[in-house]
Amino acid sequence: MELFDVYSLFDVTPVKALGCKVWDSEGTEYLDLYGGHAVISVGHSHPYYVQAVKDQVEKIGFYSNSVQNPLQQELAHKLGEVCGYPEYSLFLDNSGAESNENALKLASFHTGKDRVVAFRKSFHGRTSGAVAVTDNPSIVSPFNACHKVTFVELNDSAAVEKVLKGGDVAAVIIEGIQGCGGINIPDPEFLQELSSLCKKYGCCLILDEVQSGYGRTGKFFAHQWAGIRPDIISMGKGIANGFPCGGVLISPEIAAKKGMLGTTFGGNHLAMAAANAVLDIIKAENLVDNALEVGEYLKNSIPSSPRIKEVRGKGLMIGIEFNEPVAEIRKKLLFEKHIFTGVSGQYMVRLLAPLCLTKADVDVFIKALKEIL
User: Fold this and answer.
1) SS3 for 297-362, per residue?
2) Per-residue pLDDT tens for 113-139?
3) How many Å apart are CA 34 and CA 317, to the nearest integer?
4) Alpha helices in the chain (DSSP H)
5) pLDDT tens digits, residue range 55-102?
6) Which of 118, 123, 149, 366 pairs as cysteine with 180 (C-beta 3.0–4.6 A)?
7) For the purposes of burial, counting CB atoms within 10 Å of the CB of 88, is it exposed (0-12), middle (13-18) or buried (19 or more)?
C-alpha cells in the first residue's frame, strides 16, 4: 500500500525536537520557525508537558464523554481565567476544522437561519462545512460547494451589511488574522463594526482563532486587539501543543442545548492532560508577552531589500511578502541554513514559531535571511 501524499514533501525526517529546535535522522539541527503549522505553542518536548502526558497515559488515556472527566472542567476553569472569557462555556473537539464546523452549526441552531458570510482569502479547514466557507476553489469539491455562503472582501463593512440586510444570515465567520490567505489583518474598526452589524441583524459573529489564538499575536486571541467579544470563538492548533485537540467558546447569549453538539474523542483524558499543561506553561512562562516582544523584534530586524515587498503580522504570526516567488528562498532557508518556515501563497514566507522563541533565535534567522538576500 502506498501512502497518500498530503503535501509536497521535503527530504527531511525529523526524529527529535526540543524548544524551537528540531533534529533530523542524520543528526542535523534545525531552527523551527513554523511549529508544524502553528501547532507547537509552548515549544517541542517541554519537560512539564511531556511529564503531564506520560503521567496521564499511565492512569487512563481515553474514555468517552458518557462518563465524567474532571480534566475537562479543569481546562475550562484555567482557560476562562487565562483568555478572559470566564462566563463563556467550552465545547471540546479534536481540531480547528471541527471547531469551525460546530461553530457554524451552533450559529444556525441559535438563529434558525441558514446563510453564512465569509471573507475572500479565508481558510477555515478541510472538512465539509469548514471548506465551504473557505475561499479556495482548489480544495472545494462539488460535494462541498455551498450556495448558502457569500464571500466579501476583508475590511468592507458596507459589503457585509448589504448581505445581512437579507435577514437570512446565521453567522459571519472571520479569522482573527488570515493565515493561509497571506497574514491579512482585519482593521480593529472593521471588527468593531462587524460586531455591531451582527447584533443589529440578529446573526452570530464567529471568530476563527485556530491559527491566530492561544497567545500567538501577543494577546490570547487576535480579536482582543479590537476590544470586541464574539458570540462564538473556535480554537485548535496550539491548544495542546501537538496532541489533537480543538474547542469552541460559546457566549452565554447563545442558546446552546444539550444534544446540539457531540463528539467521541473530543475532550479525552490524554488531550486534556496536554491542554492543561499548555495553559500552565503559557501562564508560568509569560509566553503571550514573549510572543509580542520577540515578534516585534523579529519584524523590526527583517532587512530592507528590493526583493521584499512588505512585512506584516502581529506577535509571532508574521508574513514576509516578496516581489518574487518564494519557493527557492524557502528551500535555501531549509537546506542551506537549516531553518523551517512556511508559506502563504506563492510570494510569502510565513513564520509561526513556538511562543518560546528567543531574540537569539531571531538573530540566527536574520543572519541567514541576509545571506540569502
Assistant:
1) HHHHHCCCCCCEEEEEEECCEEEEEECCCCHHHHHHHHHCCCEECEECCCCEEEECCCCCCCHHHH
2) 999 999 999 999 999 999 999 999 888
3) 9
4) 35-38, 47-57, 70-83, 96-111, 128-132, 157-164, 188-201, 269-284, 287-301, 327-335, 359-372
5) 999 999 999 999 999 999 999 999 999 999 999 999 999 999 999 999
6) 123
7) buried
